[in-house]
Structures are given as C-alpha cells and as structure tokens.
Amino acid sequence: MNKTKILVIGACGQIGAELTEALRQKYGRYQVLAADIRDKSQAGVDNYPYVKLDVMNKAQLLMLCREENITQVYLLAAVLSATGEQEPALAWQLNVDGLLNTLDVAVKCEMEKVFWPSSIAVFGPDAPKQHSPQANASSPSTVYGISKAAGEYWCRYYHEKHGLDVRSLRYPGLISYKSPPGGGTTDYAVDIFHKAVSDQRYLCFLKPGTMLPMMYMPDAIRATLELMNAPSEKLRIRTSYNLSAMSFTPEELGQEIGKHIKDFKLDYLPDFRQQIADSWPDSIDDYDARVDWAWQAEFGLREMVGDMLSNVGSKDL
Ligand code: AKB
C-alpha cells in the first residue's frame, strides 16, 4: 500500500497555511506538498516541499500527482463571497472547474481521499435563520454560494459514480491570526482584532445586529483532521457537513474585545457585503457531524477573543 502523500492546493491561504502545518505535524514534513499559485519566493513558505501550481491547469495537476505519488488532496484554493460578487466568472471557474479538475485527477490517480471545503454560503434567504438544518441548504443567492452548492453535488456525484472518498465541511466564518483571510464577508471578524490592537477603533462594513456563524481556526483545523480520519462507513453525508461553533453580531464581538482593550470604539459603515451577510443564516445545526464523527467545538466567543488578542499582540491595553 502507498504511504500517505498529501497535496495541499491553496497552501498559502488562511486555512491552507495552518492546515499544511497541522498535516505536516501529523504525517511528517516531507509527506505534505504545499502548492499555491504564487512563486515560492513570494509565498513566504519554509524550506519544506512547495510547488507553484494553478489548479486550473489540469495537465500540470495530473502530472504533479503522478510524479509525486499523491494519495490525498486538500483543495483550498477558492474565491470567497465578496470577491465572488465582483468577479463572478472567476469565482465559478476557480471554485467549480478547479474542483472538477481535482476530482478527475483524484479518480485517475486512484487516490485514497479528497478534502474540499464548502461554506455556510450554500444557505440562502429562504433557509431557516436559526439552526439551519443539514438538509435545507437551498437557493443560495451569492455567486460563491451557488458555486459551493454545485461543488457539493459534484462531490457526492464522484463518490457515488466513481467511489471517490471525497469529504467536505460547510465552514462558518473562520477567525485566525496566522494568515489573513481575503475577499470574504466574515473577514470583519479578523480585521477587527488588528485594528483594535493598533488603533483601538474599527469601522465595520456590516451593520449592528448582523448575526453570523463563526469558528476559531484551531477548531476548524481539528474538525478537518477529524473528518478526514473518520471511518468512511460512518460518513452518511457526501455533499458537505454542517459545522458549527459560535454565532455573534459585530457589537457582541466589539463588547468582548472591549473587556480587554479599554476605550475600544466600534463604528459602522455597511457596504455591499451587508446583503451577502443578510442572505446567510444566524446559526446552523451540526447534529449530523456530532453524531457521525463526534464533532464538538472547543472555542466559544470569550475563549476565542482572549486567544486572538494574546496572539495579535494586545496585553490588556
Ligand atoms: C466568506 O465570508 O465568504 C467565507 C465563508 C463564510 O465561506 N468566510
């Protein structure tokens, strides 16, 4: 049997950077090949294996996977919700064609497993706002959400028709300090920490009362590893699992930050991202993830804010 050899596509992104490190700790430094569209010199990567790769170039992807004997792919390259509204064609191409290239190559190379992230964006305005159930991911109203919903069905299709063990999570907004997010609607919940520490104020692009599902990155990384480690026969859901940790509004986050940073001031100037946020649920129900592979979040709002601030640089200013 082949030794596990993992390819992480989009390894320089917000999730990719941390997941690559976690996978290297688990499988060994040289068993995980980081790939991203950037040149190695711009990627700011360490001396461990890195390759410049465009997931849209299927021939290059196939050749790489064959040469490197890749057994698992984590495909994290994506255009997020805010950029997707501005660049709809690019969002569709990267999010759907990039996935199809990866699924096809994974079948050709007889890979063990593929991971691909979906999002809370698969839920549209007609889904229940509170605890949106697993099976009710309907009518997404953003380009990003449409691409993720289509991608989920492609994952299930490849599982059913080709026997490919492809697994997926619907990530909430992810909060982290190691690598910045880019082009998402939930990015405010990361930016706010940096501005709170540097300027003690933040101008939020979402209005007060905008409740969204969120998760701290250590939980998201652990969820990904746990899902990928779960026995295949336990996984009843082959589109993508709802995944949940906490929900909050900008002012709730601001209040929690204000407990650490005196005089922190939050102002609001909503822009086009408000409409995207309004189309998503306040919270989603991850019952199936808890039952099928024992998912349980560890970080709530208080724990997340404390940890973020100690890492972003604040010490009870
Ligand atoms: C975004 O805001 O676009 C992403 C997401 C919720 O998938 N963070």
From TrEMBL:
Domain of life: Bacteria
SUPFAM superfamilies: NAD(P)-binding Rossmann-fold domains
Any one Pfam family match given in the protein's UniProt record, by short name: Epimerase
Domain NAD-dependent epimerase/dehydratase: 6-234
Family: Belongs to the NAD(P)-dependent epimerase/dehydratase family.
Name of the protein this chain belongs to: NAD-dependent epimerase/dehydratase family protein
Lineage: Bacteria, Pseudomonadati, Bacteroidota, Sphingobacteriia, Sphingobacteriales
